[in-house]
Amino acid sequence: MADRSPSLTRNPFTAEEKPAVSVAVEHLSKSFGALQVLKDVSFAVEPGEIFVLMGPSGSGKSVLLKHIVGLELPTAGRVMVDSHDASSERTREQIRMALVFQAGALFNSLSVYDNLALYLREHQVANEGGIREKVMRALQILSLENAASKLPAELSGGMKKRVAIARALVMEPQLMLYDEPTSELDPVMGATISEIIATLKDEFHVTTIVVSHDRDLALSIADRVGILMNGQLIHVSPPAALRDPHDPRIDDFLNPQVDLKNPRFKKLEI
Ligand SMILES: Nc1ncnc2c1ncn2[C@@H]1O[C@H](COP(=O)(O)OP(=O)(O)OP(=O)(O)O)[C@@H](O)[C@H]1O
Hints:
Radius of gyration: 19 Å
Helix content: 25-40%
Bound molecules: adenosine-5'-triphosphate
Number of helices: 8
Number of domains: 2
Strand order of the largest sheet: 6-7-8-3-9-10
Strand content: 15-25%
CATH architecture of the largest domain: 3-Layer(aba) Sandwich
Structural class: alpha/beta
């Protein structure tokens, strides 16, 4: 962020520091009926790392993300968060994970303030004064103080994404997952969201997994990038290795050429 707030240097929410967690995806396979979406996927994410998962539409990225937060159950294999199985209810009680959905998933009838306060009220995290402090702090970090009383319908796409991130932040997550955080944003707002993700990871040491098609985001903020194609993880490396990919499948995905003589849409199955 161009204007980094100095108060971001410590966790603003709690004296109780929760350590960042590791994530281990171990031989994960998932089928929906006859459709095998994930095929023996394995990788590990270190505590405090930003891991960006890229891949073509339909390659299984969102399904993989849902396994990490326990919203889908594996057909085979498992996902471990620290030493806990991600699919168990207990893991979700012990480890604070926040998923920032592609469309924000804000409650349209609630103000920005109440969208953020909802989780804290439901979990009786603090009294109203304490909740106000946490909500306003999160809004301040995302430069949204002036939007507290607005309804989601009154916000731009970029503001909605920032509200969704602020709402995740009030949960004091040890693990933050983002599903397409820069989709539908102009390049400058996309860069801003990338900066926010990197800043939150730096300042709060939160383990971060981002699913994205955004090559600029991956190259600028990832510690490592994984590429999923057709349900298989075909590549994991630091982003620099993707500037000159040797695998033609990765090159074609990251640097597609428009070819009007041999158009891709003629080869689409659906
Ligand atoms: N609950 C479900 N039941 C049946 N099929 C599903 C289900 N969820 C996902 N799929 C299928 O799994 C495949 C992978 O979907 P997924 O949403 O993970 O792709 P993706 O890589 O995230 O794509 P995109 O980049 O377009 O968001 C798709 O063919 C999708 O139709």
